[in-house]
């Protein structure tokens, strides 16, 4: 380090413009570059404090770009730390796993700028009076300037004073549009923000959700377009009929507990997943988004994993197929030391050469993906409900083989006791009007066969007040057919219940 004078410092960087341009060609998407900076921000959060991250989008100085601001209120950097952080492959100074490779800042700035657009980084160590400013593109010799405060794009205001680090980056619009999964390429910042919020809500759901011990989130992420700021919500996997497997795996010299939960895609949850709106990138019920997420500690490090984990009978990676479109889940791993279960240098995927991953995947092979999982999970619900009914009334006739009508329509569960004949319909997703009509159809079919039901119950994860009102109208206003001998049958008695109420959640 050579000091020029009190306000300027010269630092040497082990990266050339050509190398930096090469980093820009890693095919990292806009949101992946932003996540590199978010990882750094969370890792830099001060002990005992919640991480706060501000992401701002503003119009660029040219029509083909936007301005991105990422700020955090962590520990910040002094001059030696800043010089180290800007080196390609620099050794992380802390133990946080989110600083895994030493390429984060370089990858982020290269991928977000396309390798040649301007950027500026302002940072200050805790307690320092002013900020250190360095701006790019990268050159082997760079100047660090001492300034009083960061300079932000017009219209953006930080939610708090004295940030530890602020990045101001010129992003080509074509790179920003890589945040989208499909559809016409957006040019307005609000639409681009909606995609970015979804990515961040999935990746950082463990940090954004309430901690089970403190009942507070570990991090708070704000994404602003001008003065309009939105909090990023935690976005969970929308699973219906969740099945859970627990096992242990040995890696890194220790035994690691693993929780694997999976089931069918809950489309109703998915359609209200992102600030009340439908998810547009993840959990779409198609081949690219089928499969399970992998969460390491509180960070989701991979999504939609299927052929990456499981193999077919021929030993080749299991091919994606429409049969798995509704298959979703999550592999939950505890926080592990850096280097165990590693990712690629740009964190865009798992490291396929890491033997620890292969060890884990060999255990997951015992639980292969479910084709048509909705039908599978509903069958599992039926089996659990039959066992629960027999545990209470072991002498009842409880079956899932009762059929009605000439077509052989099968009732999910039929419970016959001394004074009752109860129809049960069990669903893995939210109650719908069609489900009530199924119960009515079963009721009518039994009556026409000379069997008088006493009750029909729809058991679902949740239902609306409108659906409950519909059941009341069927009970009060509709008349069932006469019994097979011509005598009147009893009125409909259709009820609704939740999985939680029936201890099936």
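Sequence proposed for the structure above (505 residues):
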């Amino acid at each position: 380090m050579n000091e020029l004078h009190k306000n300027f410092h010269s630092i040497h960087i082990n990266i050339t413009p050509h190398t930096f341009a090469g980093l820009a060609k890693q095919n990292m998407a806009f949101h992946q570059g932003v996540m590199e900076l978010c990882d750094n921000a969370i890792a830099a959060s001060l002990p005992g404090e919640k991480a706060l991250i501000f992401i701002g989008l503003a119009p660029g100085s040219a029509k083909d770009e936007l301005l991105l601001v990422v700020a955090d209120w962590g520990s910040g950097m002094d001059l030696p730390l800043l010089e180290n952080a800007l080196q390609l492959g620099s050794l992380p100074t802390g133990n946080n796993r989110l600083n895994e490779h030493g390429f984060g800042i370089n990858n982020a700035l290269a991928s977000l700028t396309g390798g040649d657009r301007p950027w500026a980084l302002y940072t200050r160590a805790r307690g320092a009076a002013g900020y250190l400013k360095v701006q790019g593109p990268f050159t082997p010799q760079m100047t660090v300037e001492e300034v009083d405060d960061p300079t932000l794009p017009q219209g953006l205001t930080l939610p708090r004073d004295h940030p530890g680090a602020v990045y101001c980056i010129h992003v080509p619009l074509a790179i920003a549009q890589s945040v989208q999964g499909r559809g016409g390429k957006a040019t307005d910042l609000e639409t681009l923000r909606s995609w970015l919020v979804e990515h961040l809500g999935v990746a950082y759901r463990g940090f954004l959700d309430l901690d089970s011990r403190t009942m507070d989130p570990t991090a708070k992420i704000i994404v602003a377009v001008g003065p309009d700021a939105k909090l990023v919500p935690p976005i969970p996997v929308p699973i219906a009929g969740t099945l859970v497997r627990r096992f242990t795996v040995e890696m890194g010299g220790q035994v690691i507990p693993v929780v694997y939960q999976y089931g069918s895609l809950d489309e109703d949850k998915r359609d209200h997943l992102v600030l009340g709106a439908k998810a547009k990138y993840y959990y779409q019920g198609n081949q690219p988004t089928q499969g399970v997420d992998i969460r390491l500690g509180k960070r989701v490090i991979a999504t939609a994993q299927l052929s990456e984990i499981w193999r077919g009978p021929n030993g080749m990676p299991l091919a994606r197929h429409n049969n798995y479109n509704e298959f979703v889940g999550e592999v939950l791993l505890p926080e592990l030391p850096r280097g165990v279960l590693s990712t690629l240098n740009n964190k865009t995927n798992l490291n396929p050469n890491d033997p620890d991953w292969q060890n884990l995947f060999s255990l997951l092979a015992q639980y292969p993906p479910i084709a048509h999982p909705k039908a599978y999970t509903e069958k599992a619900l039926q089996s659990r409900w039959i066992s629960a009914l027999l545990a209470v009334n072991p002498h009842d006739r409880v079956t899932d083989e009762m059929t009605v009508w000439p077509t052989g329509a099968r009732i999910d569960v039929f419970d016959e006791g001394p004074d009752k004949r109860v129809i049960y319909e069990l669903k893995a997703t939210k109650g719908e009007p069609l489900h009530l009509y199924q119960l009515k159809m079963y009721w009518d079919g039994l009556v026409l066969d000379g069997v008088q039901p006493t009750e029909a119950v729809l058991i679902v994860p949740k239902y609306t007040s409108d659906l409950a009102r519909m059941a009341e109208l069927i009970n009060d206003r509709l008349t069932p057919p006469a019994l097979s001998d011509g005598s009147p049958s009893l009125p409909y008695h259709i009820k609704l219940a939740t999985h939680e109420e029936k201890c099936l959640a």
